[in-house]
Structure formats: structure tokens, C-alpha cells
Amino acid sequence: MDNKENLKSHFFEKIDQNFDELKKYYDHYLIEMCEINTLKSETLNCLLLGFYTASITSTSHLLERMMKMALIKFETKGLNFSDHEKYNKAVNHAHNQYDHLKLPKTVSLAKNKGLISHDQFKYLNEKAKSLRDAYSHAQTSVINKDFPQFFSGFLFDFSKVKNNIINNEDVKVTTIVDVSKTSPVVAQMQQGKSSKINALDFFDNVYKILCDIELKLKE
């Protein structure tokens, strides 16, 4: 089986494993914020195929974009292409106000304008920002903060293990070692576990807030 067939088999297996859990998100379509349905789909596809680090990065982009778009749409509420000159003037003004802002500022403005609640503001300004920053800067000390400081494992002499197997003998454990979590191999292994733990929960929380913002924009 060549690489292409291996990948197809792997991805089909992931789809079978993960689709049912994600179906409700695939089935839901954003209306007021329809422009970012494609971003939502990209993030979901990462989750579907088990690309958890990519999913967190994609969710972070979705979050940044949705906050700016919410503010722009709030400022241009009631305007559309039917009066394109008035719309263009308003949307350009809103774009210039908000497009350059960073997440803490857009979240704060969204709270002040009533687009998100106090609890949503707290989540976005603390948990979501911390997760976003850690992955954006590849800061494993933050990503892996909940894991133990050391990873314990067994140290083997492979030639002895080989001889044990050939002679049908029990493999003898010689030494147990503790390796620091800052070791690149341990840090990356822990990041993979952390990403898998956090990816869906992060997307779910962000998407719920996005759906609530849609309702606010309809009012």
C-alpha cells in the first residue's frame, strides 16, 4: 500500500471515529455571520481528521475574526448594498476602527456594546486568550503546564533486549529515568496530548459565543 492509500485509509478511519460528535456543528449554518462559515468548516475539518494543534490555531483565527466582524456588523446594522454609497462609507469607517485591534480590545468593546456577557468576556479574556497566545508563540511551558515536571521511563540496552528476545527470556528492566518536560521530545509528546484534550472544548466554547452574538445582531 503506497502513501496515498495509507493516507486515505487513515482519514476515512478518522472520519468514522469523529463525525458523529461533530455533526451538530456541520449541520448548523451561520446567518448573520455567514461570511465565516468557511472558517468554521476549516476548523471542523481539523477536528474531524485529528489535527488538534491545527484546530486550536484555526479556532484562534476564527475567534479573532468573529470579534472584529461582530463589531463591524454592529456599526453597520440596518445598512446594505441597496444604498451602496452609505454602506461603503459606514463599513469603511468601522473597518478602520476595528480591523487593526488585538483580541483583548475587541473582546472589551464587544462586552461594552452588549454583544457578549460578563462570563463570556471573562472566558475570552482569560482562558481563550491564554490558549491562543500559547499556541501562537509555540510556548510549551504554557501549553503543557498541567503535566508533571518530569516524564518517567525505562532505559534499555537494545542489544540486551534483542538477546533476551532471541533466547526467549524476560526483558530485564535496568534503569528508570526521569526526563524533564522541557526536553523537546517530551514537550512535543505532551503538546499532542494537551491539544487533543483542549481542541474540541475550545471550539465549542467559541462557537457558542459566536451563536449568541448572532442572536444579538438580529435584535
Based on the model shown, name its key terms:
two-stranded antiparallel ribbon; 219 residues; mainly alpha; 2 strands; 9 helices
Task: Show the helix and strand layout.
Blueprint: H1 3-27, H2 37-48, H3 52-75, H4 84-98, H5 103-112, H6 118-136, H7 140-143, E1 150-155, H8 158-166, E2 175-180, H9 184-218
Antiparallel strand pairs: 1-2
Helix pairs in contact: 1-2, 2-3, 3-4, 3-5, 3-6, 3-9, 5-6
Could you explain how this protein is built, in words?
The protein has 219 residues and is mainly alpha-helical. The chain has nine helices and two strands; from the N terminus they run H-H-H-H-H-H-H-E-H-E-H. The chain has helices at residues 3-27, 37-48, 52-75, 84-98, 103-112, 118-136, 140-143, 158-166, 184-218; strands spanning 150-155, 175-180. Strands 1-2 form a two-stranded antiparallel sheet. Helix 3 packs across helix 4 (84-98).
Brief summary of the model shown:
With 219 residues, this protein is mainly α. It has helices spanning 3-27, 37-48, 52-75, 84-98, 103-112, 118-136, 140-143, 158-166, 184-218; strands spanning 150-155, 175-180.
Average pLDDT reading? 90
Strand order in the largest sheet: 1-2
Uncertain residue segments = none
Largest sheet: 2 strands, antiparallel
